[in-house]
């Protein structure tokens, strides 16, 4: 194994080898590249461009910038102080390569390389194609630091390793959503519908991006389907109930999670399969089941491919994702409003602090157990990660209700909850309680409370009964 002295000697020789390369047009471009990356400016511009697109690119921009900020602080405030390595000698370099101002800080590790690796790795964790496209630029930034003479190759390698490691560690605070859909039951209870014949689709024109018209897309993809647009006089339930009574062979919905839950209630009542066309902003249920684009749903309708998924209910009203009592709906609303500027993790922390600071805990009896809680969360199937940011489900057929609550009976409970969210340790914090059940009864000692489910609000009540209903058949193509 090479000794530190031998590695240092190799580093010096490699630096001299790069310094001895003949002049070329690359000198000018590498000089410009290394200056563009000063203080992370290059990556901030790239992040701004990526953030123009919703979804994985925007999440990648947020994760990349966050990783870069942490990496920069770690390298400049900690590592460069610990490893006081002298910068390389510049005597052998031509004037065309030299920077106007030679850095005077420690040479090890390279901050430019660390920032580049942190940003590119963060982007790649959310969007592998975008990360792969940026990787050559990141490596070029690292090499440019050797080319202009201000770092040894070993400084660059160490910087790349540190930046990539910090970005990878961000998974602890903000997990990357898995690409595999949730596990479901297979079923053959859905007929193939050529060109959508026999399908009635309720369309919420107010869901999703402002410039997107799902009705137009559905008419093009499924020309024989009945497209029913929501109005002030008729909502999802009214439109689809009428269609079911008139003989529709299957029901469909294009909208957000609230619209999907309403459509599911009608489909369950009439024993019909449901086509879920992702057209909302978040599409939690559609993503969990594996429907990422309208074309995914269309392909399943044409082929008659379907799956069966769990459905939960509260006081007789079905929900597909989550239900909650207490401050959770307001917390999510504030988080979503802030996440575009702060990123999901920091936005959640700020939202939790704002809501808990002014909120009032609720007194509940959960299956005979007295609880004093800020939030009671009930998920249709087990959610992950645990704590204040449940985001997805590995399974949609486990037959369980996921019960979590933020405790209000602890000293400094609000502060502890916010700190646990900030540090990414909600799953292991005593501030949260959790268990799973197949049925659940919740009594309110705080008077009538409103329950939220899939983005909608129920009527005030003092007793809430949660249970599972018969499975819902959903059009969906699944490999294997």
Describe, in plain words, how this protein is organized in 3D.
- The model has no long low-confidence stretch (mean pLDDT 84).
- The chain is built from 15 helices and 18 strands.
- The chain has helices at 4-19, 26-36, 41-50, 56-82, 111-126, 128-147, 153-169, 214-221, 236-245, 257-270, 284-289, 294-303, 328-342, 344-358, 413-423, and strands at 185-187, 199-203, 226-229, 250-255, 274-278, 306-309, 312-314, 317-319, 322-326, 362-366, 369-380, 401-407, 432-437, 439-444, 451-453, 456-457, 463-468, 472-475.
- A hairpin with a 2-residue loop joins strand 7 and strand 8.
- The strands form three sheets. Strands 7, 8, 9, 10, 11, 12, 13, 14, 15, 16 and 17 form an eleven-stranded antiparallel β-sheet that branches. It has a four-stranded parallel β-sheet with strand order 3-2-4-5, sandwiched between helices. Strands 1-6-18 form a three-stranded antiparallel β-sheet.
- Helix content is 43%, strand content 19%.
- With 480 residues, the chain is α+β, with helices and mostly antiparallel strands.
- The protein folds into three domains: 4-172, no CATH class; 191-304, 3-Layer(aba) Sandwich (Rossmann fold), CATH 3.40.50; 322-471, Tumour Suppressor Smad4 (Sandwich), CATH 2.60.200.
